Each structure stands twice: as C-alpha cells, then as structure tokens.
C-alpha cells in the first residue's frame, strides 16, 4: 500500500471513460462562431483515466480513512452517532433527490410539506415558536441567529447601542467568529470553578450595550449550567437576548427544551443531533429557532401552509433576507425528517437518556485513571486531561496511541480552559461492550505511559502514515498537485 | 424504531457503576420544573417499512428529473451523475468520517481534498483553492471579508447580472458587517461597463460579476478586471454552472483575483437546493484570506509523504473572533463527489458535458425563436442558458407544467422590467425529442 498515488499520477494522455458521448442528437452549432475565441478555454488539466482506475483509486483512499461505520468515534462536541441507512435511501429517492430548487411550488408540495412538518417537530423539540431551515451548518446558523438579533435591535432603535456579544470562555471558536462576522465586539465571561458561568462576572459585564449572551448548554465541558434561570434573568433584565448554541442538543432531546430555559434563539446542528452523516467534514444543516418576538426577523422565504397547500412566503418586510441561495440543505433535512419520524417521541427521549447514561458510565470508570477536569455529573460528554500523566505523556500521545488500538481519538485540546483537554462523547448509539473496550484501552495506555512511555510518545505505529510534520506543511505550503518538472 | 443498543440489564449495570439509582438522577442540574413532562408532542415511532412508505408518498408529490423534462437552470443544473460517483462517495469510511482532525487515520479524506484543490485550481485558472464552503452564494459572501483583507475598503460593487439569490445573500452579509453595496445595471444582457466604470472608485473593495451570468450571457471578465484593478479593487468572478468551465476560459486567466462559485454542476443531485458545493480559488498571495480548511502536503516522522490540514492560524478554532471566517463544517462529502466526478469524466468528459449542454441549448434557442411571438431577449454569446420574450409567460409555464415539463424560470419575478420573459436552460440530459416537445407546447399556447 505504500505506493498510494494521486489520481493525477494515474493519468494517461488520451484515456477516457466515455460516460458522456461525443455524439449529439441535435444539429450542430459551431462553437467558434458562437463564442469569441478569447472566452473559450485553451487548456483543461483534469486527469485522463478509466472508470476502473477511478474505482480502485478511491477504494484505496477509503481504506486510509476511518468513519463511524468502522468503529467508535468519541469525538467530543461532534456527536458522531451511528447514521441509519434508511435516511440516506430516503434522501436519494428521485422525489427528494432529483427536484429542482426553483421549480414551481405547485410541483414541490411534498418537499414543502416535509419542511413544514420538520419545522413543527423541531419547534416542539426545542420549545421555540418558529425556525428557519435555511442555514447550511452550525456556524452558519450562529451567524443567522446573531443577524436575527441584530435586526431585532435595529428595529427597536437599539442597533447602535447594542454592539457587544458576551460568551463564556469555554465557548466554541465558531461563536466569537460568528459574532465578529456580524460586526459585534466579543467579550468573554469567565467560568467558575465548577465549569459554569461565573455569575458575578456576567453581572459585571452585562449591560445595555450587550445584544446577546451566547451559551452552549450543556456547555463544551459537557456540564449543564444549574444557574441557567438566573443567567437568563440577568441577561433579560438588561434587555439582552439569550442565544443557545444548540450543538450539544443531543443531551437535551426529550429531556428539557432550551426554549423553556429562557433561551430566545437556538441553532441546531442536524448533522449531529439528528444523525446525518458528517461526510468527511460536512455537509451539515443549521436551522435556527426563535421565540415569537423574533420571528419577523428570520430569513426569508418561510414555508407556510395555506388551506391544504404549502407555499413559500417572501412577504416578510423585517426579515434579514437570505443567508443561502436556496431553501436550505434539503438533502439533510429529509434525512433528519426520516430520523425523527423513525424514532418518534419514544425514541427521541431514549436519545437524551442514553447519551447521558453512556457518558456518565465512561466518566465514572475513567476518572479512576485519568484526571477529571470537573468533578460533577456530566451530560452527553465529559472532559479529562493529561494532568498527572506519568513520564510527561501528553494528550496528543494518548490520542495517537488510541489510533493504534483501532479507535478514533476524542476531541483534544478543546475547550481551551482545560489544559490538555480530552473531550469524550460516546453518543447513545454505542453499546456497553464498545464503551468497555474503549475504557480498557484507555486504562492500558495509562499503564503503558508508566511502563513504556516511548511506545506512547512514538504512536501511532500501525497507521498508514506516522505523525505528520505540520510545521513543514505550514512553512512550505504545497496545496495542489504539480506535474513533474513544474 | 431507535438505534440504542443498551439493554435494560446493561443500563442497570451502568447506573450501578455510576452510583445512581436512575437515569433521572443524571439530570439533577436541570431545574425540575423545566423538564419535559412525559413525552414530546411528536408523532409516535415508525418502523422502517412505514417510514419508507411515508417518504415515498411525499416524494411522489414532487415533480422531479425522473418524471419530468427540465428546462430550468438558474443556479441548479440537471446533469448526469455516473453510477461510480455515489458508489464511491457512500463508502462508510468516507461518508461517516468527520473533518480530518486525526490525519493518520484520515489520509483518504485528506488526499481527496488535495485532489479537489487541484481540480478547482485547474478549472478556475488560479493557484490555490480551499476545501469547500456551503454553496455558491456563501462562497461569494465569504469573499467580502477576503477582499477587505486585501485592501481594507468597505464598499462592494456587484453587477445586476449576478444571480438574484446570490445578491440577496450579499446584501444580508454586507448589512450585518456594515459594508456598502452598490448594484450596477445591465445593457443587452451583460454588465453595463460604462456604469461600472462610473461607480468603481478608490473606496471600492471588490467588484463582483458572474459568467456565464444569470441571463446565460458570457461576460467580458477581462473588462471587469481592468476596471476593478484600475482603482485597486479586487475582481471576484462567480460561476454558478460549473460545467461551463469545460468550454469557457478560466476566469483566473482573464484577470479575476477570486473565482468562487457553485460546484453542483459537477454531477451533484439537485436535492431541492442542497447540500451543494461552494468552491473558492484565489492567487497565492491571498491564500491567507481563504476561509475554512486547506490541505497541504508534508512528510511523516519517517519521511513518508502525507497530507494534513494546514495554515490553520486563519481559522476559528485557533483565532476565534479574529479568524477570517466562522466556517467549521463545510461540504466535504459534496467536494468528494465532485472530485470523483471530475476525475471520472476527466478532461475529455467535462468538455463533452459542456459541448452537449452548449449544443442542446443552441438548438433549443433556434427552435424556440422560430415560434411566432417568441424573440431572443438579448443578442449575446451564451453557454447553456438564454432568455426569451414570450407572449404570456404565465400561460406558457402553465401549459408546460400540464405537459410534464418543469418550466423555464419566469424572469419577471426577479427583474420587474422583464415581464413575460423566460430563462431557458439545457444540459446533456435534454434530448432532441424533449426540446421539440417544449417548442410544440410553447407554440401551442400562443
Ligand atoms: C459547540 C459547537 N458549536 C458550534 C459548532 C459549529 O458547528 P458546525 O461545524 O456545524 O458549523 C460546533 C461544531 O463543531 C460545536 O461543537
């Protein structure tokens, strides 16, 4: 396997795969007559290969990869649960996969009905009045949610005054980045020794200049903030809005609704909580839900039901406008819809319960061997650290050694407030046997750190490549293939 | 139906190991009064048989490419997807992985992205490409910040021939950032260069044009580049129909500084609007303005070639509020599908797709313009879309729907001055028989 090539290195001049014929069934127009030569392409450097070359090439590449279908993937904050295959099959049906986003609404009644019903279900799950399904991922939803808040304050005549977004120091990087993209100043609120929001610091920083407090709950430490009602009171008292980064909704599903906790806005990550495949980095979908006072400001169009017909409503004068070309990532929405319909209200509750049960079980057993950053009941995930590891073995070493044992590593070095964080999220779709196997491996690695630290520090040993030189990659960037000699 | 493997016995064992009596105790931090009482008001669970029936029934209410002839483009295109593309992309190793944080077990994804970056730079005629963003419209949106990094100016000039939805997204993004947007009109279906020249100034950060533009006309990107560069603005060219790049000159070769757009045309199913593929390419000197993931080549500790995510100091997980963008999850799977598609059809295949689309559209143009009362709206070179003036657009669309056709776009909905005008699109999927049928239906509803 050491001669894994790039597809360009398999290219042979003149080789084709004939998926599209040259033969055209209409009378020909001379291209050169129709388009000035200056605007016609002179060269096209794509590979020249045959179908069998392509199949073997990408099957080869797939073998260098690791997905949930291969094994346990406890990547904290990413909710790498099993992705049911029926969801993909439904999304690919011609009636869902081969429909044009601009086709008349009369020809899209099924799609609009699906979106309408999905919005209703998500509103029920989150405790919000309405949602937009347009945003394409979590971060895009954050941006949309923050824009919605900005528009709301502009409408109230407080647009200039409310120039700040507050967020805890444990927040995900997309939160401050989204607020900044939307023109807000970002101010951090400290976490207290329990990993929750420091209420005194929040009180000190909350003012009438603050538009939004962005909070993930459970937060990125996997901890549910027990003072959530007090937090909402502090923020609302100064006229601010409570924003929930719903990336961690998996812990809440069927248990508690963010809308009932005082949040005004939430973005969901359908690719996490509602089990759509992560695809090597996406696609996702990031619907945004709001309370009724914010509904007029959501993106347009919205999906409405008028009598027995479904329509797209563009008549929303206070809307922030569009955040994406079409109606949203329908192929993700149809998967999430299938998932929710399959689970139903009974299955949804089991999601929250078992995600939290699995995480607490792992935490209870692993804390005997690893430093636990915050000693509290956790929700869907928990954070260990490399504090006190023998012989200077680090979080990075542990993560790499896990690869040798056939597991994907947890999220590491995030959240930033835990030095050497190891963030473990098992999800509800893993069995006790899998959890036990992982726990035993972690215990074994701890033993290796004691008895044979070199083994851990030199890991991984069994993967296709060993630890890669990231410094070289950044210092001398090579970002595309070059033909030999170029 | 659920996907929870824990048995009751195992759950009890786990609770015991934790040292609690019930799962409820694990939710002790949640205010009791706020917890959901009983079950949510969502329908009851369904078996796979039932849910399959439900989704099949819903799908049957949608006209689609399998049941209808499609003459609608406008930013989403009905191209052919070779069977090998889903076959490969749906391999669980690719499909159920996430962002390649652990490079040692993600060389498949990383290499595929490296190939994607190479494909995109070849197609756009620029030096560097990122690993994808959400779609064409948000790719264009991301260049607002990119251009700002180049020249620190806060005014954007955009042609009215850019897709109306893309312009709406630009307006939303610019409003939220406090960037001014100036729209420039069109003349005979193309950007009005005199007007553009008149508004571009040393305050302009970026000029944005689309080619082929929303009307299908091929824009003189080199003209736009000259006007933008004369005032120190960057030229952003967007492409909404990826397959056009098989026939038309790479915008980067015509002077564009950023070439961004929609990669759905590379064999990606239409899916009612997404997930699609935003691609972004630029010059080497601007590489640090690119949002999102970038994959670079390096070596491992034993000197063996390998690939990693690189130049991450641009990104939100490192720079937080000072990052160039907030993007995290992108559209990796769609980028993989496009990578496989472009590798599979290859150099000749993409040229053929473009040839076919061009030929069908030109035949359709000729046939439809023969109909009495139907006229070409513009007299410009085009690729696979063109605008027509018809006697009654509404009546024509209704007749076409009646005849099993997903009709061309009614331009009047987007350009009030273009009442009774249709935007017709063809791809390799439109047979001569379909085109002749379309002509007959249009002729019949005079
Ligand atoms: C806590 C948290 N918030 C926000 C996000 C951003 O979501 P996305 O990657 O879908 O943009 C993530 C995902 O990585 C996350 O873990």
TrEMBL record, chain A:
EC number(s) given by UniProt: 1.4.4.2
GO biological process annotation, one example: glycine decarboxylation via glycine cleavage system
UniProt cofactor(s): pyridoxal 5'-phosphate
GO molecular function, one term: glycine binding
InterPro entries the UniProt entry points to: Aminotrans_V_dom, GcvPB, GDC-P_C, GDC_P, PyrdxlP-dep_Trfase, PyrdxlP-dep_Trfase_major, PyrdxlP-dep_Trfase_small
Enzymatic class: oxidoreductase
Keywords carried by this UniProt record: Oxidoreductase, Pyridoxal phosphate
Start and end residues of each Glycine dehydrogenase C-terminal domain: 353-450
Similarity annotation: Belongs to the GcvP family. C-terminal subunit subfamily.
Protein known as: Probable glycine dehydrogenase (decarboxylating) subunit 2
Organism of this sequence: Candidatus Iainarchaeum sp
Protein encoded by which gene: gcvPB
From TrEMBL, chain B:
GO molecular function term, any single one: glycine dehydrogenase (decarboxylating) activity
SUPFAM superfamilies in UniProt: PLP-dependent transferases
Alphabetical keyword list: Oxidoreductase
Signal peptide range in chain numbering: none
Lineage: superkingdom: Archaea
CDD domains: GDC-P (cd00613)
Domain Glycine cleavage system P-protein N-terminal: 2-442
Keyword Mitochondrion assigned: no
Gene3D superfamilies found in the cross-reference section: Aspartate Aminotransferase, domain 1, Type I PLP-dependent aspartate aminotransferase-like (Major domain)
Main EC class the enzyme belongs to: oxidoreductase
Enzyme Commission (EC) number: 1.4.4.2
Pfam families in alphabetical order: GDC-P
Keyword field contains Plastid: no
GO biological process, one term: glycine decarboxylation via glycine cleavage system
InterPro entries associated with the record: GcvPA, GDC-P_N, GDC_P, PyrdxlP-dep_Trfase, PyrdxlP-dep_Trfase_major, PyrdxlP-dep_Trfase_small
Catalysed reaction, written as an equation: N(6)-[(R)-lipoyl]-L-lysyl-[glycine-cleavage complex H protein] + glycine + H(+) = N(6)-[(R)-S(8)-aminomethyldihydrolipoyl]-L-lysyl-[glycine-cleavage complex H protein] + CO2
Function: The glycine cleavage system catalyzes the degradation of glycine. The P protein binds the alpha-amino group of glycine through its pyridoxal phosphate cofactor; CO(2) is released and the remaining methylamine moiety is then transferred to the lipoamide cofactor of the H protein.
Subunit organization: The glycine cleavage system is composed of four proteins: P, T, L and H. In this organism, the P 'protein' is a heterodimer of two subunits.
Homology family: Belongs to the GcvP family. N-terminal subunit subfamily.
HAMAP family to which the protein is assigned, alphabetical: GcvPA (MF_00712)
Protein's name in the database: Probable glycine dehydrogenase (decarboxylating) subunit 1
Source species of the chain: Candidatus Iainarchaeum sp
């Amino acid at each position: 396997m050491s001669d894994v090539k790039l597809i360009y290195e398999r290219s042979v001049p003149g080789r084709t795969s004939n998926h599209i014929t040259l033969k055209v069934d209409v009378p020909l127009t001379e291209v050169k007559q129709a388009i000035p030569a200056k605007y016609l392409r002179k060269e096209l450097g794509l590979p020249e290969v045959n179908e069998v070359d392509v199949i073997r090439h990408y099957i080869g590449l797939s073998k260098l990869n690791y997905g949930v279908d291969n094994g346990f993937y406890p990547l904290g904050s990413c909710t790498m649960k099993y992705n049911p295959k029926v969801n993909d099959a439904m999304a690919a049906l011609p009636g869902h996969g081969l429909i044009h986003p601009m086709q008349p609404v009369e020809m899209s009644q099924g799609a609009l009905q699906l979106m309408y019903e999905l919005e209703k279900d998500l509103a029920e799950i989150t405790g919000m009045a309405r949602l937009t399904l347009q945003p394409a991922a979590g971060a895009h939803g954050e941006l949309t949610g923050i824009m919605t808040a900005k528009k709301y304050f502009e409408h109230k005549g407080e647009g200039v005054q409310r120039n700040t977004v507050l967020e805890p120091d444990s927040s995900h990087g997309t939160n401050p980045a989204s607020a900044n993209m939307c023109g807000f100043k970002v101010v951090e609120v400290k976490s207290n020794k329990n990993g929750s929001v420091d209420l005194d610091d929040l009180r000190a920083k909350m003012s009438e200049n603050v538009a939004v407090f962005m909070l993930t709950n459970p937060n990125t430490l996997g901890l549910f903030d027990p003072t959530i009602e007090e937090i909402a009171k502090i923020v609302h008292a100064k006229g601010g809005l409570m924003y929930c980064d719903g990336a961690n909704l998996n812990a809440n599903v069927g248990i508690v609704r963010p809308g009932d906790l005082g949040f005004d806005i939430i973005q969901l990550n359908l690719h996490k909580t509602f089990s759509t495949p992560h695809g090597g980095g996406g696609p996702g979908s990031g619907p945004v839900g709001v309370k009724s006072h914010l509904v007029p400001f959501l993106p347009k169009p919205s999906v409405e039901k008028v009598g027995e017909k479904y329509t797209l409503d563009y008549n929303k004068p206070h809307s922030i406008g569009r955040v994406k070309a079409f109606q949203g990532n329908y192929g993700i929405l149809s998967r999430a819809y299938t998932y929710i319909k399959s689970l139903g209200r009974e299955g949804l509750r089991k999601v929250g319960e078992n995600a939290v049960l699995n995480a607490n079980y792992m935490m209870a057993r692993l804390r005997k061997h690893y430093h636990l950053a915050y000693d509290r009941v956790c929700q869907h995930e928990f954070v260990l650290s490399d504090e006190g590891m023998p012989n200077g073995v680090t979080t990075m070493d542990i993560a790499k050694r896990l690869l040798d044992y056939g597991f994907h590593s947890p999220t590491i070095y995030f959240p930033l407030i835990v030095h050497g964080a190891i963030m473990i999220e098992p999800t509800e779709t893993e069995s006790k046997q899998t959890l036990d196997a992982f726990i035993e491996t972690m215990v074994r690695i701890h033993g290796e750190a004691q008895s044979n630290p070199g083994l851990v520090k030199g890991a991984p040993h069994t993967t296709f490549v060993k630890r890669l030189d990231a410094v070289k990659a950044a210092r001398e960037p090579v970002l595309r293939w070059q033909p030999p000699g170029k | 139906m659920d996907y929870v493997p824990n048995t009751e016995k195992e759950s009890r064992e786990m609770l015991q190991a934790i040292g609690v009596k019930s799962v409820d105790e694990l939710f002790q931090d949640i205010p009791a009064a706020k917890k959901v009482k009983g079950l949510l008001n969502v329908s009851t669970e369904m078996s796979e048989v039932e849910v399959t029936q439900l989704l099949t029934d819903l799908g049957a209410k949608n006209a689609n490419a399998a049941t209808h002839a499609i003459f609608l483009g406008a930013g989403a295109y009905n191209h052919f997807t070779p069977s090998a593309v889903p076959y490969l992309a749906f391999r669980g190793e690719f499909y159920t992985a996430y962002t390649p944080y652990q490079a040692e077990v993600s060389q498949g994804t990383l290499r595929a992205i490296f190939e994607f970056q190479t494909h995109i730079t070849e197609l756009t005629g620029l030096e560097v490409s990122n690993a994808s963003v959400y779609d064409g419209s948000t790719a264009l949106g991301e260049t607002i910040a990119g251009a700002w990094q180049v020249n620190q100016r806060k005014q954007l000039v955009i042609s009215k021939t850019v897709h109306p939805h893309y312009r709406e997204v630009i307006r939303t993004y610019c409003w939220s950032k406090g960037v001014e947007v100036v729209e420039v009109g069109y003349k005979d279906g193309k950007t009005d260069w005199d007007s553009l020249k008149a508004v571009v100034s040393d305050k302009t950060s970026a000029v944005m044009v689309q080619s082929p533009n929303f009307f299908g006309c091929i824009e003189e990107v080199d003209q736009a580049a000259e006007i933008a560069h004369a005032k120190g603005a960057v030229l952003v060219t967007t492409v909404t129909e990826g397959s056009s790049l098989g026939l038309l000159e790479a915008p980067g070769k015509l002077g564009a500084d950023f070439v961004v757009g929609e990669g759905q045309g590379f064999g990606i199913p239409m899916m009612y609007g997404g997930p699609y593929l935003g691609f972004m390419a630029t010059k080497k000197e601007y590489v640090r303005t690119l949002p999102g993931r970038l994959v670079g080549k390096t070596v491992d500790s034993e000197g063996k070639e390998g690939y990693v995510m690189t130049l991450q100091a641009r990104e939100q997980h490192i720079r937080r509020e000072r990052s160039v963008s907030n993007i995290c999850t992108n559209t990796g799977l769609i980028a993989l599908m496009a990578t496989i598609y472009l590798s599979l059809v290859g150099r000749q295949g993409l040229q053929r797709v473009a040839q076919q689309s061009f030929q069908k559209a030109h035949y359709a143009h000729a046939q439809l313009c023969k109909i009495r009362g139907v006229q070409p709206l513009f007299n410009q070179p085009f690729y696979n879309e063109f605008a027509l003036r018809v006697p009654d657009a509404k009546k024509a669309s209704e007749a076409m729907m009646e005849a099993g056709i997903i009709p061309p776009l009614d331009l009047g909905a987007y350009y009030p001055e273009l009442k009774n005008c249709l935007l017709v699109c063809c791809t390799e999927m439109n047979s001569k028989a379909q085109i002749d049928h379309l002509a007959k239906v249009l002729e019949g509803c005079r």
